[in-house]
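Record 1 of the preview.
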Amino acid sequence: MNDTGSINATPECLLRPGNTNCGGCGMSTGLTMLGRAMAGEHYSLVIPACCGIVAAGAFPTSAYSVPVVASTFASAPAFASGVAAVNELNPEADQKPRQVICWAGDGGTYDIGIATLSAAAERNENLIYICYDNEIYGNTGGQRSSATPSAARTTTTPRGKREGKKEIIEILAAHRIPYAATLSIAHPEDFREKIQKALEIAGFRFFLIHAPCPTGWKTEPAESVELVSLAVRSGVFPLYEVFDGVDYRINVQPDGTDPAHYYEKQKRFSGQEVDLQKVRLTSGQRINRLRQLAEIQS
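->
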């Protein structure tokens, strides 16, 4: 806070202070890290219906420090494709080309928006798509999505979800896009390096951020970073990247932490029959498969 009593916002401050987001929100931390990684870049955001667009606040003010286009729930990649096309038609003198970034939740990515997402990926549109995955429809009451893990209780699965989580990175990699990667707010340097790497790549680039929602996950806001750290360390949420859909690289190796520690901290799983043995087996199989794919390319 400065001498006038107002809160300072530095140039890399994408999400301005004073926004209405919940404490411990993984999306908010992700936006902060994105702003730092994009410092000095010329860019705009396209955000569909989700907590991210509510964060902007009411027109004509905005909690974001860059231009934002609010899109319909299903159409963020289509909107962004149009913005990118207009940018190419109207280059700005003496400035880097403006990057177009979609910022969307899992509902608008895995489910409602997957048709336009797939179409933009298939066309290899020159944009960056970032999904902050809080594993529910957080903005509308915490309903289950296809990103919700098995056994998690939501407002529409009060007895726990029966199905597993959709493998969205694998789906995007199958489109053979230039770059896809996972991000964790517990690994800021890896986060920054991957964003900056994507800036040097043309075409469609996709990121998946593991973004805790204390309200929906029934967790302590102060433990959000610890939670996603446990997810990486246990192999529940591996950190890796895929180039051109075929070249896999693991960025952080799991350290053998038991996934049970990750599940125990979330009351959305309390009282449910979580098959931890299956979680351990699935996580181990996923990491072994990624290691095999990475070795093929080495």
